[in-house]
TrEMBL record:
Entries under InterPro entries matching the protein: Cyclin-like_sf, Cyclin/Ssn8
Organism annotation: Fistulifera solaris (Oleaginous diatom)
Disordered as annotated region, ranges: 410-431
GO molecular function, one term: cyclin-dependent protein serine/threonine kinase regulator activity
Protein's recorded name: Cyclin H
Amino acid sequence: MYTCSGVWPTSPALPMHNKNTRPWVERRASLTRRFLPPDFHHSFKIQEGEISIKAISMDFDRSSQAKSWLFDEPSLQACRSRSTAPHEVDVRMPRVKTVRKFASGFHRSSVSQRFNPCTNDLLDPDEQESLVRFHAHQMQTLVGPTALLPELRTSITVLSTAIMLFRRFYLSNSILYFNPRKMAAACAFFAAKSEEEKIEIGLLSHATQVVHSRVQHAPLCRNELRGVSVFDIQDYEKLLMEGTNYEFKCHHPFSAMHALAIDYTNFFAKKGVFIDADDVLERASAVVQRALVFSDANFLFAPGHVGFAAVAIALGATPTNSESIGDGLKTYLLDRFACKAQSELDDFEAAVSRIIECLFRCKHMDLTSTVNVHEVAQRAEETKLLLHKVSSIRMHLFCRPQPVPISPTRKRSWAEEEEFHPPRGNNKRMYSQGVSAKVTPVCHCN
């Protein structure tokens, strides 16, 4: 019997009621929460003769991600079309833009049914999504296992949460009004706190400065990857919370992927076929991370299904085969869960096959081993032109003079008409008594 559990067994030599051993037990529980994701034994359960075909736990069903951040393809495209529309501007403070949060529950609202995409927007939805993917990919230098500074290296869960929050924010807001580099740093800082792996905000700001210094000779991204100050991270952290409608919980496919890979290798090991579980997990993790940045799988499917599809791709499944999930996984499902109805297994296989087809159909990620140099160069040139276009639009939006409205009944004071000089000598008594008089400009001669 194989069970996936995220809690360590209690040692009989250390009883829970002993006051001397309580700090050790609490420390052990904190380590468990730190290195194992909260939904480790919830997203995908595998037991003897039993499988969660929905691949979604009860916790995920009740989560904000399942209720507000799962879309279908038409509603997701409509949401992105609306996000590129110009933001409302406060007349009194023209540089302050209104943060929008309509993406939360957009697929369930009536707005998604009656919304007509605008055709005269400043930026195309596909162009905005290209820049969002670019900055989401660059977040791995700030936080995660491959962070630039050793002090900022955290678990893969922190990086995945940061990318998910970053992409959620720009489903409602435009990158023309909110700097994506500042928002990326704020997402990294907030994700580390939400996953209980706090990092220093000063080190994060320093990491952005280091990245900016390294790309000074790269015209493609030196204007986008600018340094971010501590004040900007704090300011954009507030915008992030409002733009995501204060829904921060993110479920990821890693727990389902880990449980399936181990059980799959153990199942075939009993039959004399030995498969390296670490190799399968490494390849599946790479697929999950690329899908998180470059595809919409996490907005369209449950994390358990995505984890199963990642393992299938790591084992060699392709949509061109007659069996999309692969012969090995099909045999595994039929033999391992023979107690399930055939229709239930077919539905689960069809759901996973749709994810595999979606990942292979995504033009922004390449799951094949061959690399086309000309195609990569063409995409780099398209990104360069897009960055120039966005820079010119931002300059047009924010560099032009903004008229400040003045009330017609407001009178200008004498201090606005001419230069103010502080009173000297006997004039101090006049100002203390409230006498309104103009001060004669004083000429200081050497």
